[in-house]
Amino acid sequence: MRCHINLLKSNQVPHYFTRSTGTMGFTVIIVGGSVSGLSLASMLEKFNINYILLEAHPTIAPQLGASLGLLPSGLRILDQLGCYDKIRNNVGNTYYAAQMRLFSGKTWIDTKPTTFSEKLEERIGYPQTFVDRQTVIQVLFDSLKYKDRVLTSKRVNVVEHGGDHVTVHTTDGSKYTGDVVVGADGIHSKVRQEMWRIANDAKSDLFKPDPLVGLQCESKCIFGISKRPPGLPASPQQINAFFKNSNYMIISAPENRYYWFLFTEANKVYGKDIPRYTKEDELQLAEEHFEDQLTETTTFKDLYEHRLQTSLVSIEDHVFPRWHYRRIITIGDAAHKLHPISAQGGNGAMETAAVLVNTLVDALQDQDAKGSLTECEIDAIFTDVQANRFQRAVDAVNQGRRTNSASIKETLFSKIFVDYFFPRFGQSLIFSLIVKNTMSGPCIARLPVPERYIMAVERHQRRNPKKNWTTWTLMSLGAGFLFVFMFSRMRV
Predict the structure, then answer these.
(1) Which is one Gene Ontology cellular component term of this protein (predicted)?
(2) Which residues touch 456 (CB under 8 Å, ≥6 apart)?
(3) Quick one: which of 76, 293, 403, 445 has the most CB atoms within 10 Å?
C-alpha cells in the first residue's frame, strides 16, 4: 500500500464521496483521543464510515508537556486530511540550524547555506518539523465534521463480544456497541489488556506466553518544554549533545520555547518490572546533569530551570507480535512503541491508521449491498493490516535502538560514529533514509495525493532523469551494516 503519485490527482473525487446513502451502518468504536485515534476518526469521516471515539481525559487535548516529531510520511497523511497547513502555520519556521556537542567536547555546527529541512521540503514536499502533541491533536479534532461523536471522560473498563457486534463499557456506567473496536489508547492500553483477557478466557494460545514478559527497557528519558533560556538562540535550532552516559536532543518550539529530551542509561528490566517514576526521581536525575554543557553558553540547569512541563519516563520500544483478536485491533503505541530518538512514533501511528482505513474501505465496498462484515471478514482485514505494517514497524524500532545504542554511551565505536562519521556523512544518510521511507510508505489510498508532494517528486525526476534508487540503496545498506556492526560490538 505504498503512496503512488498516480493514484488520484487533486481534481478527482473518491468514490465514497459521491455516495447518496449517507453514513454507513458499519460502526467503529475508537478508544483514545490520541494522534492515532483522531487521525483514524478524520479518515473514517472522509468515507462516511460511522464511528464514536471514547477519550478517558476530561478534555480532548490536554497539555502533557510532550512534543511530536513529524516526518514527511506523516505530514503527507495530515495533508490529505486538510491539517498540514494549520500545523505548519502553528509551528512557523521549521528550517532548523543544526549543531552538536560531540563526545570530545568540541562543537560541530552545520555551515551549509541550506538547512536539512529545506532540502527535504525541496525533495519531497515536506520538511521535518517538531510541534506540541497537543497542537496536532487539537488540529485533528478541529478537522472533524461530527465533533459530537468524540466523548470525553469515558474511561474504558470492559470490552465484550456479542454474536455480530462488540460492546465497550466505561467506568461511568455507559456502554457503546459497534462492529469493531480500535485501541488507540497508548502504551498502557486498556483495550489491549481486554483483548488478551478475552482470548485467554476463550482458552486461546494466541497471546501466550504473556506478551508483557518479553518487553525490555534499557534507558529512561526526561522530556520537557522550556521557555527559551537566554543562552540559546531565538532562531530555529536543532541541538544534539553527547556525554559519557547520556545524550540530549533540543529543538526550537513556537512561542519562544524549546522542546528537549535527556536520554540516560537504565538497568535492563523486563515486563512488569519496568518502573514508573515520580517527580522526586525526575528532580534527582536532573540535578545529576545540571553541569552538562549543552552549548558554549547554556547548561542543562539553565534549560531545566526554565521548564514549563516535564516528565521522566522509562523508554519502552517494541512491536507486539499480534495486534488483533476477533473484532478488536490495536494501533499506534498500543501495538508498536518506538524510541522517541527516532521521531517516528506519531508518523507510524498515522500510517497504521491509514492502512486500516484503506483495507476497511476496500472490504466495505465489496460488501456494499449488505453494509456489514462477518467476524471472519473482519479478522482477514486486521490480518492484512498487521501484515502490511509489521515489518516497517519492526524496522523503525530497530533503527531507534541502534541510534540510541550508538549515542547514549561513550564507547570507542560510538565515538567514531558521533565524532567522525556523523559530522561528515550523517545528514546525507538520514536524508536518503527519510526520502526512501516516505516514498515507500502508505497514505490514504482513495484520497488525492497532495499536489505539493507530486510536484516535488516530479520536479526532482525532471532534474535528475538518470538517477534512481542505487545511491540511496547503497547508502542505506552501508549504514545498516555499520549500525549492526556497532550494535553487536557494543553488546559484547
Answers:
(1) membrane
(2) 121, 122, 123, 124, 125
(3) 76
Which residues does 218 contact at the CB level (< 8 Å), separation at least 6?
Answer: 265, 266, 268, 315
Q: Is 20 exposed, middle or buried (0-12, 13-18, 19+ CB in 10 A)?
A: exposed
pLDDT in tens, 465-478: 765 555 545 555 55
Torsion of CA 203, 206, 211, 213, to 10 degrees: 60
Number of domains observed in the structure of the chain: 1
Give pLDDT, residue 408: 79
30 lies in which domain range?
Answer: 15-213+318-491
Give 176-195 pLDDT, tens digit per residue.
999 999 999 999 999 999 99
Average pLDDT along the chain = 88
Q: Does residue 89 sit within a domain?
A: yes
Q: Is the peptide bond before 209 cis (omega within 30 degrees of 0)?
A: yes
Give Cβ neighbours of residue 74 (< 8 Å, ≥ 6 apart): 346, 347, 350, 351
Window from 174-183, 229-238, 277-286, 394-403 with minimum mean pLDDT: 394-403
Q: Which residues of 365-375 are buried (b: 16+ CB within 10 A; e: fewer)?
A: eeeeeeeebeb
> Does residue 294 lie within any of the structural domains?
no
pLDDT greater than 80 at residue 489: no
